[in-house]
Design brief:
By secondary structure, the protein is mainly α. Helix content is 60%, strand content 0%.
């Protein structure tokens, strides 16, 4: 014969077990109390529903392999990539840069190239022009086979802005020397095109021009237009 007090105790224990949340993988659960979103299919490992905003800081999906994580990163990068340029765009780009290279080449010759022992003010522009012409020819030859070039979009304005500052540098160097235009050129490229900090942009710009001045003006005595 069971006493009323022991029956009440057994009833409370049974009620506590029924209201206790089921823990996946705990013996005795039988999978009955587990949530379908956690249990998954019968006999399979638990899976997790992960959205784009639920990725951990480490950038690795829970339960995903390294190859699957790399595939996800590649898909996100592919969605953010600008459209690919075609052969016509590649050839047009090569023609434009080739024209710029030829113009710089003619300008360097007019400044005077000098010799290896006594370089003239056109020595450095001549080397840049030769490299630019060679790269332009290579781009034109590979225009039909190139598949990783980007089409002209709104991002191309940054490149055009950089080219405009370079043209301004060339125009001002004969008027006020190379120091001020070079500092401004480096600063604009670093701060506004490269998104560097103000302090970094200022210090690097001054440092680059100081090294250039010490090397070409002081050490090599290259007759570059300068103020000091």
């Amino acid at each position: 014969m069971t006493s009323p007090s022991s029956g009440s105790t057994q009833h409370d224990a049974t009620q506590h077990d029924a209201t206790r949340p089921a823990v996946p993988g705990q013996p005795g659960d039988g999978g009955a109390g587990a949530s379908p979103a956690v249990r998954g299919d019968a006999g399979s490992a638990p899976h997790h529903a992960v959205g784009p905003d639920a990725l951990p800081d480490a950038g690795v999906l829970p339960g995903a392999t390294a190859a699957e994580a790399d595939d996800l990163v590649d898909e996100v990068a592919e969605e953010d990539r600008p459209p690919t340029a075609g052969p016509v765009t590649n050839l047009a780009t090569a023609v434009v840069t080739l024209g710029i290279g030829v113009a710089v080449l003619l300008g360097s010759l007019s400044l005077g190239v000098g010799t290896a022992e006594a370089p003239g003010p056109g020595t450095w522009p001549l080397l840049v022009a030769i490299a630019l012409i060679a790269l332009s020819v290579a781009t034109a030859v590979a225009s039909r086979r190139t598949t990783d070039a980007e089409a002209f979009t709104s991002r191309a304005w940054g490149v055009l802005a950089g080219l405009a500052t370079l043209v301004g540098f060339v125009l001002l160097i004969d008027v006020i020397g190379f120091e001020v235009p070079a500092v401004l050129l480096c600063f604009v490229w670093l701060r506004f095109l490269g998104r560097e900090g103000w302090r970094t942009s200022v210090l690097v710009s001054l440092g680059v021009v100081a090294v250039f001045y010490a090397l070409f003006v002081v050490a090599l005595s290259v007759p570059i237009p300068h103020l000091f």
